[in-house]
Specification:
By secondary structure, this protein is of the alpha+beta class. The chain is built from 8 helices and 14 strands.
């Protein structure tokens, strides 16, 4: 909290926190707030932790999540994040690009983000669960216990519940089929002209849409918005899940992670070093001098993504 105040100031933190809490209340993810003495005897209390983040595009964000790792594991152990593999995703981009080239059509690449994805999914917990907000949270509800009604971020089962609903909307409502190569890569062909194809590549709550049909793209966006509300949409995607897309003059698509790598290098203090082709390149270990061999906390790297 102190680091966030130093970086952006108290007023900015108060504004960000209000937006985050209000979103959870508006979507019904959190319900009425209580004092400890008012909770039922069988209540399960989950502590919340708060992350303030300055994104790569300099946007400020606040994320309030449950510390679900402090709860006992689910009996079924059903928890996972639905993420399409990089191999199938790259193959889908290449295949769609070749298909559009063959038909002399424009290759459309778009990105849609479900805002507050997990917060739309009912939790249906067999026991009442309450989220304890930190005492020092810059918000009037600090220190209060809020009834958890939806699959908020941080609970063990939230990933699975959201994935099931996302898959249902894409397959049952929008009419897509999950591919054999990857369960989170979905495809649909137009019934009149099967040459019009739309591919949906899903990474948790981000959908990369690859198609040669603007109408099929819109139908998918409408199906998602009908279930989850307004989406964050980039009709001409330049980035998806940390991967950057650049259209080449030849018509090809270049995939890089230069911005993510540059930001990580800046945070851990290695931006001044010469780049290497691969992390295992022999020059990496022989180019360093003694003063550059500074121990770095490994948790810093995991906090960057």
């Amino acid at each position: 909290m102190r680091a966030a105040i130093r970086a952006r100031g108290v007023d900015r933190l108060i504004s960000l926190t209000a937006v985050e809490v209000d979103k959870r209340l508006r979507l019904g993810a959190l319900g009425k707030d209580f004092a400890l003495r008012e909770l039922p005897f069988n209540a399960v209390i989950v502590r919340a932790h708060v992350l303030y983040k300055i994104k790569a595009d300099d946007r400020d964000t606040c994320r309030i999540a449950a510390m679900g790792d402090q709860l006992p594991p689910l009996p079924s152990a059903d928890t996972f994040a639905a993420v399409v593999g990089e191999g199938p995703k790259v193959l889908a981009i290449a295949a769609m690009q070749a298909h559009c080239q063959f038909r002399a059509e424009v290759f459309l690449m778009s990105d849609a983000d479900v805002v507050g994805g997990f917060l739309h999914i009912p939790l249906n917990s067999p026991v009442p669960m309450y989220l304890l907000l930190p005492d020092n949270l810059p918000h009037p509800l600090a220190g209060r216990y809020l009834l958890i009604q939806h699959a908020i971020y941080g609970l063990r089962e939230s990933n699975r519940l959201f994935s099931l609903e996302m898959t249902r909307v894409i397959t049952k409502v929008a009419g897509y089929v999950s591919t054999q190569g990857d369960s989170q890569l979905f495809v649909k062909a137009d019934k009149v002209d099967p040459g019009y194809i739309c591919i949906a590549s899903v990474t948790v709550d981000d959908v990369l849409i690859l198609t040669n049909s603007a109408s099929m793209r819109q139908e998918l966006l409408d199906a998602l918005a009908s279930r989850f509300g307004p989406l964050t949409i980039n009709m001409e995607s330049a980035m998806h899940a940390g991967v950057e897309f650049t259209r080449l003059p030849s018509g090809g698509v270049l995939l890089t992670q230069d911005r993510a790598i540059a930001r990580a290098a800046s945070v851990v203090g290695v931006s001044h070093l010469s780049p290497v082709a691969l992390p295992g390149d022999g020059r990496l270990f022989f180019a360093l001098v003694a003063e550059e061999c500074v121990p770095v906390d490994s948790t810093v790297y995991s906090s960057l993504w």
